[in-house]
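Minutes, project huddle
Topic: does the predicted pose make sense with adenosine-5'-tetraphosphate bound?
PN asked that the exact inputs be recorded in the minutes so nobody has to dig through chat later. Recorded below.
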Amino acid sequence: MQENNTQKRKRSLSFIQPTSVPTLGNYLGAMKIWPSFQDEYDTIYGVADLHSITVRQEPAKLRQQIHEMFAMLLALGIDPERGIVFIQSQVPAHSQLAWLLNCYTQFGELSRMTQFKDKAAQHSDNVNAGLFTYPCLMAADILLYQADVVPVGADQKQHVEICRDIAQRFNSVYGNVFTMPEPSIPKIGARVMSLADPTKKMSKSDPNPRATVLLTDEPNVIMKKFKSAVTDSEMSVRYAEGKDGINNLMTIYSVITGYSFEKIESDFSGRGYGDFKAAVGEAVVEELRPVREKFNRYLADKAYLVECEKKGAETAGRIARRTLDKAMKKIGFVL
Ligand code: AQP
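Predicted holo structure (tokens), as shared on screen:
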């Protein structure tokens, strides 16, 4: 990461919560393309561990999942020598700016967030303030680094939009403090659905193991999950309204192989769902094989992981501190 390069490249930033091993949804909707951003942008990738405690986490498991998510980012091809990769909670400026931004965000705008409504319904026994103000912390994550582009899946588009509204409001009072970020959402694969209920998005915290494919699943497990994926009784591989299960499998197959829906329909015309599910399963197994192997290697080298985590937090911390100081001075704090 060149902090002071004269030919300034645009900055891209994305985070992922260490709430479990990432799913095929996280991968196809966001993570698959993250390494390619390193060619064109200054990149920042983060393990969003502060976000993950909006839902109760078991301490030892959370600690392990944070290291695992960091190892997964490296396994995907994110290179700590080319960009910044770090753990969010190791940079205190995230929590500090989040508090400031809370005071520039309206209750009404937060109440409209779909993710808040969904998660509040899912965890009705723990509708905490953090779940409600989650978008302010996410806005802090983005704005601290003056990110130009934020590659995300479709479910996070609303959060990038509220981040823009908060930045705009702050800038209109204090001048140009924050860069306005743009979301970057893939054309296909932006919303991968659950294999057990294809009307619901695939989520890593889904308690039903048959709903998700995890990036660390062994080939036989992946094949089994695809064989039992919920489809319909029509037995015809075609993309159409009301065929949520098949549409989802076609989307997954298309993103991985690069085949158009027309080609998939013609290749599987007159063949049963069994053949198609097996083909999708095999394509996913081959796509994820190198990721799983590299992940296991990085995870085994704890000393290297911790060294990269520390270095990432130091570099991120320097950039974040500059933005935080600027925002605090503008508000009127004494630094
Ligand atoms: N089903 C999905 N299809 C496409 N993209 C998805 N993303 C998540 N689910 C899908 C994208 O993955 C990135 C990282 O997500 P996150 O961990 O920051 O939060 P999330 O969106 O809440 O993801 P999960 O898997 O649903 O996590 P839990 O279960 O913990 O809430 C984001 O860019 C997201 O858009």
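Observations noted during the meeting:
- The longest strand covers residues 11-16.
- The longest helix spans residues 302-331.
No decisions taken; revisit at the next huddle.
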